[in-house]
Each structure stands twice: as C-alpha cells, then as structure tokens.
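HOLO CASE FILE
Compound: iron/sulfur cluster
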Amino acid sequence: MTVNIRTIQHYMYCPRRFGLLELNQDWSENAFVVMANIMHERVHSGKHELHSKNKIELSSVSLYHDELDLYGVADCIEFVRSKTGTYIEQLGDKFDVNIVEYKPRQPDSGAANETDIIQVFAQKLCADYIWKCKSTGYIYYGDTRRRVKLQLNEEYDKYYSLLQKLISEMNEILESGNIPVRIKGQKCSGCSIKDVCVPQNKKYTVRSLVKEESV
Ligand code: SF4
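Model generated. Tokens follow.
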C-alpha cells in the first residue's frame, strides 16, 4: 500500500492513534497540533522559490518513491551549488541537496526525536530517488532558531531497516482494518485525539461498531 510519510509519525507515537486516524478518519486538534500547523502554514503559505547565486530554495516540495510506495511533502529543499555535488538535470548544474523540516520546539536534550528523524529519512529516500543524489537532512526549530543536522547518511542502514519495519506494520493494520488496542504504558496526556479515542483495551473495527449501533 502507498504510504504518506506524515502518517509514519502517527504510528510511531501510538499505533492506535494511527489506526483511528487512517481507518476511522478521526481528527481533533490540541495546542501542540495548532502550534505545529501555524508553523507549517507559514512555511507553506504559497509555494516559494528563492534563487541566489549559490543556492535555490524551494518550499512545499512534493516527493515520492515509486519502488518503496512512499510519498509526502518536504517543508523545504535547498539546492546548494557545489563542484562535488550531484548534477541535477532540471537545474543544469551540480548541487548538494539539503532537506529542511520545520518543527516548533527543540527537545530539551537538544537532539532530534526519533519520530522526526524517521520522517526526514523517508523524505531523503524520496529526494535521493528523484534527483539521484545523496541528500542531507536537517531540522530547523522555531523556538531556538537552530538548525540541527541529522546523521542520515552515517546511520543509513539503521534508519532504513527501522523504516521498513514500520511500513510493514502500518500496512498490516491497514489491510486488516483492525484498530489496535492501546499499548500498556502508552503516554496519552499530549494526544490530540484522546477524547475521541477513550483509551480502551478492546479491539474493534468500523464494521463491528456499526453492528453494535444497530443492535
Ligand atoms: S489517547 Fe492514547 S491510546 Fe488513544 S490514540 Fe491517543 S495516545 Fe493512543
């Protein structure tokens, strides 16, 4: 099944949340979601292209990988002119390709969350596929105004196997149509759909709920 990159984070946060969002189309927003949305709206408010002598910067770039069945949208892709970079046919020169994802808050540890890293890694696979390059991933944090470089090429194998495992688990849920139960110990306080979810340790499908309603 084709996977939208943004859903991988939902699954990593909580498989039940992923099931509710993807199978039930449940949605609700809390302060964290609104904050992230405002930041992304600023980034995506009208696609823009900035051209300078050494750099081309594109926002809201659609990405895909036909062989991995992945697609998504990158906040920003930078093409930095470089003699040692990849020749990008559409731009007629050699470039280093940078992916920049925007996040509102930097974790207290200073290091990026694994869920954010996997999101950018999936974008990187798509960018590498499209432009036949070896792109670099960054996260820019709005609160600290810092940009953190991710070790995606250095730890490629580790992130690749993790991503494959996640995608296969997500596909299992989508194919079964079963919304997973809440994992024991799952942290729910920051979840935007907790009022919809009402954590319960009971497996159900959309069909079984409809049956219950009609009894
Ligand atoms: S409330 Fe908890 S169990 Fe339910 S979707 Fe959110 S994080 Fe998952």
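CASE NOTES: The chain has a mean pLDDT of 87. Residues 156-176 form the longest helix (21 residues).
CLOSED: yes
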